[in-house]
Design brief:
It is a single chain. By secondary structure, the protein is mainly beta. The chain is about 15% helix and about 45% strand. The protein contains 3 helices and 10 strands, in the order αβββββββββααβ. The strands form 2 sheets. It has an 8-stranded antiparallel β-barrel. β8 and β9 form a beta hairpin. The radius of gyration is 26 Å and the shape is elongated. The relative contact order is 0.18.
Length: about 260
Amino acid sequence: MKKTLTLIFFALLTQALYSQSPGYNGKKFSINYGFYFINATSNPNTNGNNGFFCFTTTHCLAPEYVVGRHIAMGLSLRYSRTGFFYKSNLIYNNNLAYNPYGSSYTLFGSNNKTDHRLTGTMNVISAGIYPKIFLKAGIAPLGSYMKPELIISMTYVQAASDAKMNDYINADHYYNVPDYPSPKISNYSPYMTIGAGLEFGETRILFNRLVLDYGLRMGLTFGSFMNQQAQVTESNYYELVSGRRLFQASLLNLKVGVGLLAF
């Protein structure tokens, strides 16, 4: 009887230790794909469109390894392509050159930023590192989680470098100035930005291998945040407008994802 009780005790102890160990059925490493999206309502998407049914999207590849009962460490590689509005003559800033009629004249006859605006595109490549912290009811990599992340981003801007504006209008004046140049940009992309993200989500595992993931992500790009009121010049114009677009696109995103428990 004593031997039987001893065997039962060690069997239960072994089961308890196994059930408390991190990982899922002994699997700790996973490779995950995340798709992030948000409406492009006030700024354009890749196609230059904006509206409720237009979206800014981000693709993310992230390997993760479970290091504790409630925590996994991961690396992320992200790619996003979207658009931004700009004006090639920067008519609402008199500190710039190339206004042939002086700062008392307003080219195009309006300071409205929606008039005669052009659309550029920006490709953003980011790398990040994060802990994925599973909440009390979950055991990594399964359940509800919180994921703070530190990110470095490189933004590559594509905008008209030879835009030519004609027929400038100011109140009762009419001008026809052919080949009016865009800003002479001296600080070309890529532009580096440091940022942070905080994600809340839920993971489910199917067939002992397939990871399903969904959640909500909030983000902040520090440089873009600090430059919201920065003075626009010809040497920083594209950097500022693309940085502000990145700031807006990072604020809030929804996520759906899928992954594979490898080993």
